[in-house]
Specification:
Blueprint (H helix, E strand, L loop, with lengths): L2 H4 L1 E6 L2 E4 L3 E2 L3 E2 L3 E10 L6 E8 L8 E2 L5 E2 L5 E8 L7 E8 L3 E3 L2 E8 L26
Antiparallel strand pairs: 1-12, 2-11, 3-10, 4-10, 5-9, 5-12, 6-7, 6-8, 6-10
């Protein structure tokens, strides 16, 4: 199996300009997946700027509660931070990333990579959102 066929790629939040308000990503429905990896970029390294994950039963995230131990703090300006959640509580199937901004910082686009799909092939080309291609056994030549 190819990685792009077994991983669902979702942009869950657009980049955010400098500010101090929280940035909450959209929830992802974990039905049919064993894990999810979220990642983004934190513009300003500061102990108050925290990337974390939250879980709940409501698809809107209205009941989202922090996942214990999920906090990640960038150690350098512009550092990519990530959280990988494997086999979360199945009774709460909606997970979202969140960035708490204790000091003013930018936040990059936030992505989710859901993996170990029970359905073998995932379609990751979504019109006007994300596009790419799978190459199988490619040879040198014109791109």
């Amino acid at each position: 199996m190819n990685l792009s066929n077994g991983v669902k790629i979702t942009k869950v939040a657009a980049a955010s300009s400098a500010g101090t308000s929280a940035v909450n990503g959209n929830t992802v429905d974990m039905t049919g997946f064993e894990g999810v990896l979220f990642f983004t970029t934190i513009g300003t390294a500061n102990s108050g700027n925290i990337f974390k994950a939250q879980i709940g039963e409501d698809p809107t995230g209205s009941d989202a509660a922090d996942l214990e131990g999920s906090a990640v703090v960038a150690e350098e300006n512009g550092q990519v931070v990530w959280i990988d959640i494997y086999r979360p509580d199945p009774s709460q199937k909606y997970i979202r990333p969140a960035v708490v901004r204790g000091s003013s910082t930018t936040v990059g686009d936030i992505y989710a990579l859901q993996y170990e799909a029970r359905k073998e092939v995932i379609e990751n080309n979504i019109e006007d959102v994300i596009i790419g291609k799978l190459l199988v056994n490619p040879y040198e030549g014109t791109a």
